[in-house]
Amino acid sequence: MKPTTLLHEMEDLTQELTMPSGPRLRVIAVTSGKGGVGKSNVVANLGLALAQQGLKVLLIDADLGLANLDIILGLNPQFTIHDVLQLRKTLPEVLVEGPGGMKILPASSGIPELSDLDEYQKMFLLNELDNYSESVDVVLVDTGAGISRNVLFFNIAAQERLVVANNEPTSITDAYALIKVLATQHNERRFKLLVNGLSQPREAEAVYRTLLKVAERFLGRDISLEYMGYIPHDESVPKSVLKQQPVLTLYPKSRAARSFTQIAQRLWETPAPEEVDGNIKFFWRRLLQYQI
Ligand SMILES: Nc1ncnc2c1ncn2[C@@H]1O[C@H](COP(=O)(O)OP(=O)(O)O)[C@@H](O)[C@H]1O
Ligand SMILES: [Mg+2]
User: Fold this and answer.
1) Tally of domains in the chain
2) Domain that holds residue 206
3) If DSSP states are collapsed to H, E and C, what string results for the chain?
4) Substitution candidate for ligand 1 out of 113, 237, 242, 244 with most atoms within 8 A of CB
5) pLDDT digits (tens, 9 = 90+) for 86-114
6) Ligand 1 pocket check for 35: Cβ under 6 Å
7) In a domain, 7, yes or no
């Protein structure tokens, strides 16, 4: 290849990487450290609330060992993210349609957690998502619990991290542990917090203040933890889980459903700052920056 041709191609590539490419797609990892705090419910219902506001929503079940988004949403998927990772299926072949027209990339329950995704699997998955990104406004990723490499990968690949916690000390310490690893080892400084399962606003705000105080004290004052609000403890949530439907569908007037709608609005009004990822359609630059 002549050097001038190469130069032109490099210029094209640079333009591709820096030109604005339509409305920005938002990729939000929903994460928690501790399991059982309501992450999957948040993903399902926040996703539906965003879809009801007219957005095209993709949910990714990245809890590769204990998948349950499909169960919460009453879906019966034929294929899962495992088929994509094993290169047996493409993303569109695996996606299923859920409530409100949401698209869901399911995982499988009962399969032992995939050992760390290898570089090829990560690249392949991100490439599939990138190809699909034109059809989506917002992606919510259910990362699963813990701080395994897979969990960290999805947190870093996403542009935004929404941490879910309740007021149990274990939930707060595990949320902090996750924030700490992402901040100290991967230079993530911006987080959003959603408190789940409390009765009073002031209890939820106390969780936020505790986490913020510890994070600022030990990780530095440039850590940003933005409070998105709280979902009240509400018996409509477990009732809807039993019926395998989002609380927003089954009990739209419940306190929990109304909070999901409000928080979806707030979340949509507070995008990550532009400079975080510029105009890259999907998470390529971040992937190139951080190899974990
Ligand atoms: N706001 C809430 N009020 C009452 N129960 C809740 C609430 N949020 C979640 N739950 C219950 O907590 C359990 C765990 O929720 P889940 O979303 O599966 O957690 P995770 O994905 O973090 O492991 C579910 O059985 C669900 O019904
Ligand atoms: Mg879950």
Assistant:
1) 1
2) 30-284
3) CCHHHHHHHHHHHHHHHHCCCCCCCEEEEEECCCCCCCHHHHHHHHHHHHHHCCCCEEEEECCCCECCHHHHCCCCCCCCHHHHHCCCCCHHHHCEECHHHCEEECCCECCCCCCCCCHHHHHHHHHHHHHHHHHCCEEEEECCCCCCHHHHHHHHHCCEEEEEECCCHHHHHHHHHHHHHHHHHHCCCEEEEEEEEECCHHHHHHHHHHHHHHHHHHHCCCCEEEEEEEEECCCHHHHHHHCCCCHHHHCCCCHHHHHHHHHHHHHHHCCCCHHHCCCCCCCHHHHHHCCC
4) 237
5) 889 999 999 999 999 999 999 987 777 67
6) yes
7) no
